[in-house]
Every structure is written in C-alpha cells, then in structure tokens.
Design brief:
heterodimer, A: about 140 residues, mainly alpha, 6 helices, globular, B: about 140 residues, about 65% helix
C-alpha cells in the first residue's frame, strides 16, 4: 500500500520532462529508455556511447538522491525471482516490439502528438491495469 | 560536450524517477491497482513530465536543428501496425506484473540489489530475443 504524493510526483515528473526537453534541444534525441537501453547491447555503433553515458547518469541521479538524504528505503519488490524473470522478458521483448515504453511513448511521443504513441500508451496502460486486476484481485 | 549533455540529462532523469518514487515498484502497482487502494501519483508524474515536454517541444522544434547536432532524430513511422499493439500489450503485462518498466529498473541498479539485477538481465534477454527474431533495431528514430 502506498499513499498519494502529488507534490513529489509533480516535481519528479517535471524533472523527467526537463531531461527529455534538454536532450531534444541539445542533441535532437528522444528520451525513450527502450531506445537508449539498446546502447547496452551489440552491435555497438557510433551512437552507443552517449546512450551508455545517459544510463550511467540515470543510476547516478538515483544515488545522488539517496546521498542527499532522499528516502529510498520504502522500495519494495514483492515479486519472486521467477516472476521478475517472466516480467523482465515481457518488458524487454514487448517494449522493443512496440517501439517504446513509458518514457518514449508515454512522455516524449505524446508530447510530440504522435498517434502511434498515444495508441501505444492507451494499450499498455489498459494491459497493465488488467494485469494488476488479475494478479491483485483474482489470485 | 555532447557526452556531458547525455550525462546531465541522465542524472536529471534519474533524479526525477527517484523524487517521484517511480523507482518503487509498489508505487507503480499502487497506481495500476485502480479498484484497490488506488494511489494516483503516477498520473501526476506523467502530467508534470508531459506539461514541461509539450511546452518545450513547441519551441524546440521551431529550430532548424538542435544546438549540438545537425538534425533532429525523430521517429518517422506514422501508421499504426500490429507490432505496436501486440508489443504494447506484452509490455503492459510485464509492467503490471513486476511494477518495473525500463527506466526505473535501470536507474535502480545502484541501490536495488539482486532483484533489480534479475529483472534488468531478463529485460536485456527479452531485447536480445526481439533482435534475434525480428530485425535488429536501427539506432536512429526509435523511442
């Protein structure tokens, strides 16, 4: 059970939006983590390096938050290892097949008024709502 | 300079995920659990990010090119196809099952321990499977 935290949600969301805006303004790139994650896997083209550095920055951002006294102790991963493997495979495969995830479609794509992103976001939101309904209420 | 920008944007993104608690899978599942004890916070995260990004992109895309590169790298595909829909369905099932999507999972590597690592490795294997069965992705113009 988690409680509603509108202010930190808005502030954190704005930081994510600012990151995406700066990446577009300076590098002309979409801050979609599915695409950026591909920098971790071969073949390593000329574009892999900035992606890997972005991901390192992301890890550092969370560590900075913790260092500054931010509370990360409430993080709870309740899923079993087998469940995590199943979910991870689906997330990796599905996000690539669908050309994006929450950040790429849900934030950047919708902000760019992309029809594909709007549809993809509605579909994965509905799919996730249905999945949680099944896992939390039926089993 | 270009790499410094990538690092800075990554740090901001990670900070945003941490501040908004999106790196906490329980928080994400709390949002997805609409008919349970619903926590609408994630909608505010998206609202905040979308507001900033939508206003920014209106001005940014008026420029002929970004500041440090010669062109914008935007997705070119406009039409809906089966892959998009099936991919989004599969992604949603995985996201709802674990409460993790790619950004928060990768960002939590530094604090998350073994379970995060298991999820991240599985996610990369899922990506490799996709690359194996379908065409390997072009770097340019994907989300």
């Amino acid at each position: 059970m988690t409680s509603f935290t509108p202010y930190s949600a808005l502030l954190g969301g704005s930081l994510i939006g600012l990151s995406a805006a700066l990446l577009l303004l300076l590098k002309g790139r979409i801050a979609g983590i599915t695409g950026i994650m591909d920098g971790l896997l071969p073949p390593y083209g000329s574009d892999a390096l900035w992606r890997i550095i972005f991901l390192i920055g992301m890890v550092l951002g969370v560590l900075l938050f913790k260092q500054a006294g931010g509370n990360v102790s409430e993080i709870a991963i309740e899923a079993s290892n087998i469940t995590l493997i199943f979910a991870g495979l689906l997330v990796g495969f599905g996000a690539n097949l669908g050309s994006g995830c929450t950040s790429g479609h849900g934030i950047c794509g919708i902000a760019l008024a992309s029809k594909r992103s709007i549809v993809a976001t509605l579909v994965f939101m509905f799919s996730a709502f249905a999945t949680v309904f099944v896992t939390q209420h039926l089993f | 300079m270009k790499l410094l920008v990538a690092l800075l944007c990554g740090i901001l993104f990670g900070l945003g995920l941490a501040v908004s608690q999106m790196i906490n899978p329980a928080k994400v599942i709390g949002f997805l659990n609409v008919i349970g004890n619903w926590d609408p916070s994630l909608a505010f995260v998206m609202g905040g990010a979308l507001t900033v990004m939508t206003i920014a992109r209106i001005y940014i895309l008026r420029r002929p090119a970004p500041l440090l590169e010669s062109q914008f790298y935007l997705p070119e595909k406009r039409t809906l196809d089966r892959r998009l829909i099936i991919g989004a369905i599969l992604f949603g099932i995985g996201w709802g099952t674990a409460g993790f999507c790619p950004g928060p999972a990768l960002a939590s590597i530094g604090i998350g321990g073994e379970k995060v690592l298991i999820f991240v490795v599985s996610m990369l294997v899922g990506t490799l499977l996709f690359n194996h069965f379908f065409h390997p992705k072009k770097y340019c113009c994907d989300y």
